[in-house]
């Protein structure tokens, strides 16, 4: 800022802007309250169905958030403008005071054009009016005034420039919407930008050559600012995609003699988390700079980043920053599509990720768990599970390749832990969670998450997962059985409808492929916990069906419950027969509750819940009785494996239909007959007559 602008500026327009934005904040706060208390509240209470359950509800939810974000962004803009105006007026006051003090020493401050200024003598003693004594000054007075004025102008320039940068940063975050970034004043926004640039430069220039004390400061700073939108973007774009990868490759490579990894090993997990959250937040910005960052990072994924002692693929490095945080959906899908395409070109990606083709070994890239972090699919799938919408898109993508077919098929995986001791495969574990997010719309890592209304895209993920998992047969990874149980339980309405159907019907939009469903149910039933989760979910659905569905013939709900029970029993038998050399889980049955699926099953009303609890008890009696039994097929002559469960279902139906002419005996007989039929029908689906 030049001398004349600050000296004679009135800042009237800036004051008007502050007033206008303050009025805007008041209006937007009112609209936010109306949207929250009226629009959202009524939407939450509404009984949505059909298109309204998906399109309209989603539109309302997004609209309410937009009002909230608009109020937040307007408040931040007003605060920055207000703070900047106050600072500039304060700097102007200081400038005028300095000029006035100079005049008292016969010094004047004059603009030289182009933003410069000079300090000169105001009146030469020889030209002073007769009898007028000119104040004296020394050369040090000239220097002091010049320096003081320069400091004031520099401060004003910093206020003006940093405010402009902060405002541009806020607006660029969401070109077509509003940012939820909140700043109390210009100083806090300016500080976030400056500190971000400083930290990025530290990482870029020093890498693992930074001192332990510098590393500690770096980690503390990331922890402080990891959720700050302006810091996140400034840090990411200043460091750059290549700088990000070079930094992590350099830090994790201990062969170059760097001692930082060893001296701060106990802090690396926290540091990796803070770094990851910062990058994740940055990808939520839609600014041109971040879009370019994301595109470049995706391009670098297939390149090898060389260090002194080794070389690591970009995907391996970046994926280890994706184990925590909410990454932008666009970035996730571009990244995932490129990762799958790269692996398919490799044909045997495990050889490349482990550097089994020759050359130095891959160092430990992950410090947030026991695994080395060499398989990039693990980190990516973990990020995908934190973003259900992106997960749904990924698993439904067929071009440039069918992602679901690849990751749910026979993907080439490897043990990524220090010792190959038969522990679970982390890539499969992460893929299972991502599948849950994709098919249910619920984040499996959020303990407070609740079921959402299914969209056609969720149904599509369900159908595609049934297809590819059933094709895998007994090769379906054991690590994903509990995840698929959650998916089936979340879609219990369609699963119960299909398991109880009497025939294939292309005209029935609710019907799934019965052959695929039986095979997947069998794979789920090979794991005790997964089996328990699926059965609890379907027990709840059968009771809900009895209480809340109202077919023309009420007996349909009774018979469907029987058919589904028989279907599940056949899947259980096939699972135990497949693993008959070690049917250990069945022999050690001990009910402990299957809370893993609780967040994915809608809450039932009091009456329905009492029925569910009663049925759960009866089912447990049957399961406990298995401990003394043998692993053999129940047939039409002897079907005792679920007799308590079937009796319980019959009792529930009778309670809901008190006017029925049937008594307990005939109702139990009918549901048992349906179970026999469902059992035999399921055997037919598998070709085992």
Question: Would you write up a description of this structure?
Answer:
The protein has 689 residues and is mostly helical. Helices cover 63% and strands 3% of the residues. It has helices at 3-8, 12-45, 55-103, 139-173, 186-206, 212-225, 229-239, 241-252, 260-263, 268-282, 288-300, 314-319, 329-346, 349-353, 376-385, 388-396, 403-407, 426-440, 456-472, 481-490, 492-499, 514-524, 528-548, 555-578, 584-587, 606-625, 643-656, 664-685, and strands at 107-113, 116-121, 304-306, 311-313. The strands form two sheets. A two-stranded antiparallel sheet has the order 1-2. The longest helix is centred in the N-terminal third of the chain and has 49 residues, at 55-103.
Structure summary:
The protein is mainly α.
Instruction: Please work out how many helical segments DSSP would assign.
Output: 28
Sheet having the most strands: 2 strands, antiparallel
Question: Level of helix content?
Answer: 55-70%
Order of strands in the sheet with most strands: 1-2
Q: Hey, roughly how much beta strand do the residues contain?
A: under 5%
Shape: elongated
User: Given the helix and strand composition, which structural class is it?
Assistant: mainly alpha
List low-pLDDT spans: 634-638
């Amino acid at each position: 800022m030049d001398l004349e602008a600050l000296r004679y500026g009135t800042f009237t327009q800036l004051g008007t802007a502050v007033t206008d934005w303050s009025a805007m904040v008041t209006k937007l706060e009112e609209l936010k309250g109306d949207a929250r208390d009226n629009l959202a509240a009524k939407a939450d209470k509404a009984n949505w169905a059909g298109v309204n359950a998906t399109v309209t509800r989603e539109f309302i939810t997004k609209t309410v958030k937009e009002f909230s974000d608009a109020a937040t962004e307007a408040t931040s803009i007003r605060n920055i403008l207000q703070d900047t105006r106050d600072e500039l007026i304060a700097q102007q006051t200081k400038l005028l005071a300095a000029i006035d003090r100079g005049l008292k020493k016969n010094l004047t401050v004059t603009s030289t054009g182009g933003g410069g200024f000079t300090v000169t003598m105001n009146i030469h003693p020889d030209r002073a009016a007769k009898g007028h004594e000119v104040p004296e000054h020394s050369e040090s007075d000239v220097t002091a005034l010049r320096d003081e004025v320069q400091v004031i102008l520099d401060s004003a320039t910093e206020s003006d420039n940093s405010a402009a940068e902060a405002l541009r940063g806020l607006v660029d975050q969401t070109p077509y919407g509003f940012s939820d970034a909140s700043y109390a004043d210009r100083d806090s926004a300016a500080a976030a930008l400056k500190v971000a640039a400083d930290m990025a430069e530290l990482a870029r220039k020093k890498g693992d050559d930074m001192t332990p004390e510098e590393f500690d400061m770096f980690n503390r700073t990331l922890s402080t600012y990891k959720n700050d939108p302006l810091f996140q973007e400034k840090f990411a774009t200043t460091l750059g995609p290549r700088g990000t990868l070079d930094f992590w490759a350099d830090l994790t490579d201990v062969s170059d003699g760097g001692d930082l990894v060893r001296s701060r090993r106990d802090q690396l997990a926290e540091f990796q988390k803070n770094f990851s959250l910062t990058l994740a937040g940055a990808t939520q910005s839609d600014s041109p700079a971040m879009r370019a960052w994301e595109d470049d990072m995706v391009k670098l994924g297939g390149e090898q980043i060389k260090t002194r002692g080794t070389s690591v693929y970009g995907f391996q490095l970046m994926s280890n920053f994706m184990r925590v945080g909410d990454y932008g959906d666009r970035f996730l899908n571009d990244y995932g599509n490129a990762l799958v395409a790269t692996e398919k070109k490799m044909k045997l990606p495990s050889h490349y990720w482990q550097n089994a083709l020759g050359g130095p070994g891959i160092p430990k890239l992950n410090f947030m768990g026991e695994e080395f972090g060499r398989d990039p699919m693990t980190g990516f799938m973990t990020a995908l599970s934190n973003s259900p919408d992106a997960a749904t898109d990924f698993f439904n993508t067929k071009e440039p390749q069918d992602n679901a077919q690849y990751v749910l098929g026979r993907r080439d995986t490897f043990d990524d832990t220090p010792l190959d001791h038969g522990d679970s495969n982390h890539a499969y574990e992460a893929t299972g969670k991502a599948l849950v997010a994709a098919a249910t719309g619920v984040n499996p890592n959020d303990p407070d998450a609740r079921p959402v209304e299914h969209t056609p895209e969720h149904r599509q993920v369900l159908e595609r997962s049934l297809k590819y998992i059933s094709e895998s047969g007994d090769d379906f990874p054991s690590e994903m059985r509990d995840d698929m149980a959650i998916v089936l339980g979340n879609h219990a309405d369609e699963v119960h409808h299909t398991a109880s159907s009497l025939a294939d019907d292309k005209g029935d939009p609710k019907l799934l492929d019965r052959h695929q469903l039986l095979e997947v149910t069998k794979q789920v039933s090979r794991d005790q916990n997964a089996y328990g989760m699926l059965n609890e979910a379907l027990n709840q659905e059968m009771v809900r069906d009895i209480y809340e569905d109202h077919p023309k013939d009420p007996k349909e709900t009774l018979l469907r419950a029987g058919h589904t029970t028989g279907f599940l029993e056949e899947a259980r038998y096939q699972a135990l027969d497949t693993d008959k050399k070690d049917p250990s889980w069945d022999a050690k049955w001990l009910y402990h509750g299957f809370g893993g699926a609780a967040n994915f099953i809608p809450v039932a009303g009091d009456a329905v819940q009492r029925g569910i609890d009663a049925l759960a008890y009866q089912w447990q009696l049957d399961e406990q009785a298995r401990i003394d039994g043998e692993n053999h097929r129940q047939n039409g002559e002897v079907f005792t494996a679920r007799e308590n469960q079937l009796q319980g279902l019959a009792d529930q139906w009778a309670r809901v239909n008190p006017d029925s002419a049937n008594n307990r005996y005939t109702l139990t007989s009918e549901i048992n007959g349906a179970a026999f039929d469902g059992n035999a029908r399921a055997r037919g689906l598998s070709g085992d007559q």
